[in-house]
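User: Um, any thoughts?
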Amino acid sequence: MRNDWPYPMFSKYQKHLRENAGEYFKRKRFAVSKKYNFILASRDDWHQNIILPEVVQYIEEQKQFAQSQKRAYPLHRYIHHGLSSQAMVFNLLGPLVVRNHLSPLVNLLQKRGVEIDSGKVNGVFEYEDREVFLENQAQPTSIDFALLSHAGNPIALVESKLVEQRFGGCSVLERGDCDGRNPAKDHSLCYLHEIGRRYWEVLEKHGFLIGKMKDSPTCVLGTFYQYFREVLFALEKGTPFILLIDERNPAFSVLHGERERGFIPFLETLLPATAKPRVSTVSIQEIVRSIEKHRAHKDWIYEFADKYGVK
């Protein structure tokens, strides 16, 4: 890479967060991996990656409820990783849920132009609905966090990213069962369409299959499968889609002068005009600043800032 490249490097950002997580675990005297000091020694130690015991209790209760419904609660494989985005969102939004005080998040989103009705709202993690894309026999689309109305309907869906450097791609392409051609004009080119998934049908329904997405020789979903699947999920649910990012992560958004680079400004160019108002981005830092204004969260928000090096 050229020495005069004007944008910050992802590797430096990742190194900073790894060092910060390692120091945090060291101060806590938690046992860590022999190879990586920013990963706890065992996945069974995941609760040490969660700041508040009441949030740990909440997660355990959700796991037990899921088991009673004969389904698994989707804790990520690396929930014990110091840079786990799932652990981060549990730490950031979990206290708001268990204390029934979601106003720091709701107020911030409203100020950012996200249309959320004032009133009593609830929050849940790992929100899914298999019927949206007919995923009954597959891993369903799951959104990290959902704000729900008093009646239990989703009113905003939040997907979180921390140190990731991309969105998840299409596993069919990744395992070598697809040549990557664009199915926009011929949906039968897509294996997932042929087995009954509604992704291309919903893309067409919401006006995505025009311009770049239609004319590209390669399938845009191959690389950005997770992003479009979640945006479409929110559109089908009639809710805003919020991408929660660390503003220090240059993979998603970075500014040099008046020029913005990263996945977010690029992917916005692929959204139809009708979808753009329904898709927003908010940063971890913005939510931290909003929470810091409330005395009810003084007992943990500064530890969160310390854990993730948020200024």
Notes: Strands lie at 121-128, 142-149, 154-160, 241-245, 254-256, 259-261, 279-283. The chain has a mean pLDDT of 92.
